[in-house]
């Protein structure tokens, strides 16, 4: 399984700090969606941290062995007349793509969302699982011919 990364992410973050820019409107810096990925038995498990994102604001799509996770964090409702003092929480639409190898079964992907954590389970394809191969020999072929 390959994952798309942004090699210039840290450079962008430093440039924003130096110029006094904010990350409002985008969540691509410094890390759009922190994640962990591991294999557990016959499946890959990918876990994304999406705090403050409601389940209905998350989209999962698979096309040509590419899994795309999109999420939108909306601004919190602030009462009229309230003046924001600090706004560090990133807002907006962000996405992450995972390139799935041919050994994974993209048709049977399952996802669950609980307490701001999205868990995606991707089964290993049946044809990619290890299997025993029987060995035939001359003696078994000879027995079939004689019979």
From TrEMBL:
**Short name of one Pfam family:** HSP20
- List the SUPFAM superfamilies: HSP20-like chaperones
PROSITE patterns documented for this protein:
SHSP
The record's listing under CDD domains reads:
ACD_sHsps-like
Which Gene3D superfamilies does the entry link to?
2.60.40.790
User: Which residue intervals define the domain SHSP in the entry?
Assistant: 26-138
Q: Say which family it is in.
A: Belongs to the small heat shock protein (HSP20) family.
Q: What is this protein called?
A: HSP20 family protein
- What is the species of this protein? Kribbella voronezhensis
């Amino acid at each position: 399984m390959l994952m798309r990364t942004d090699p210039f992410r840290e450079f962008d973050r430093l440039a924003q700090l130096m110029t006094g820019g904010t990350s409002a409107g985008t969540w691509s810096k410094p890390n759009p969606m922190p994640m962990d990925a591991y294999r557990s038995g016959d499946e890959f498990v990918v876990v994304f941290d999406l705090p403050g994102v409601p389940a209905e604001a998350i989209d999962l799509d698979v096309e040509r062995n590419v899994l795309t996770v999109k999420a939108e964090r909306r601004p919190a409702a602030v009462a009229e007349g309230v003046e924001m003092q600090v706004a560090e929480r990133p807002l907006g639409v962000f996405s992450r793509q995972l390139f799935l190898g041919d050994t994974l079964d993209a048709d049977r992907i399952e996802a669950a969302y609980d307490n701001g954590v999205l868990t995606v389970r991707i089964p290993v394809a049946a044809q990619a699982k290890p299997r025993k191969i029987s060995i035939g020999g001359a003696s078994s072929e000879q027995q079939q011919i004689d019979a």
